[in-house]
Amino acid sequence: MTSIPPKPVLLTGASGNLGRHLTKALSALGWTLRLTDIAAFPDPVPHNATFTKADLNDGLTILKLAEGCGMILHFGGVSTEHPFEDVLGPNIRGLYHIYEAARREGARVLFASSNHAIGFHERDTPLDDDCQFMPDGYYGLSKAYGELMGRMYWFKHGVENINVRIGSSFPEPIDARMLSTWLSFDDLARLCARATLAEKTGSCVIWGASANTRTYWRRDARDAIGWAPEDSADPFAAQMAGRISTNPIQERYQGGGYTVIDYTRTAPPPAKLFPR
Ligand code: 15L
Known about the structure:
The chain has 276 residues and is of the alpha/beta class. It has one domain: NAD(P)-binding Rossmann-like Domain (Rossmann fold, 3-Layer(aba) Sandwich), CATH 3.40.50.720. 33% of the residues lie in helices and 13% in strands. It has a seven-stranded parallel β-sheet with strand order 3-2-1-4-5-6-7, with helices on both faces. Strand 1, helix 1 and strand 2 form a beta-alpha-beta unit. Helix 1 crosses helix 6, helix 2 runs parallel beside helix 3 and helix 3 runs parallel beside helix 4. The protein binds D-galactaro-1,5-lactone.
């Protein structure tokens, strides 16, 4: 299999931390990239890439940007917890524009989903890719909606999509929770490459985490696309020991700090998610 996609790849959210790393890694492989973001691109644009400043709310521009592309790596939109009205445009309407563009171009989509789509699962409950959505805020809810949008576009229009439930993609783990959720930038770049080059993907879910022995997550579609993480948070274990919060709710759930943003429940949390 060639390592260069036959058509250009559209990367949204190119000016963010993950987008900048992906730009560097994928352009170094010789890929032709179309970069876009609502914010200016802070680095020199690689010679085999172009950058267009655009708002995901602007469907026409997104359609034009995707013209001739075979893959859309969708990292754009609001990437942390925000009020509902701020999430709505970029993450819901914007995602619709991405999927309409993919449908028109016959392109595949990699959707940067998040662990916050399942954040209210308890940390001691290992999850498979078909677990229930348990969003821990408006941001996580938009990611759950995004995954469902992918499923609909696959069944209805044959648009392939890989939904990567990213744990915590940072240069290094910064707290004890990330010993479970950390995804190295390099593992992410290799995952995007495999998702782009795989012969078929259907509509699938991948847990976006490195090979962390303390992981919360198990089965997913990684074998089908030929990806396996090569890095691990394990070597940071001693350094992260004791880096936990004092909030028992935050420490109980997989979504960590996001679960306690605007948390107003006063009764103790339910012992089970779905008591029967
Ligand atoms: C995310 O989805 C965010 O984009 C990132 O900034 C982190 O907060 C991460 O989740 C996490 O859960 O650590």
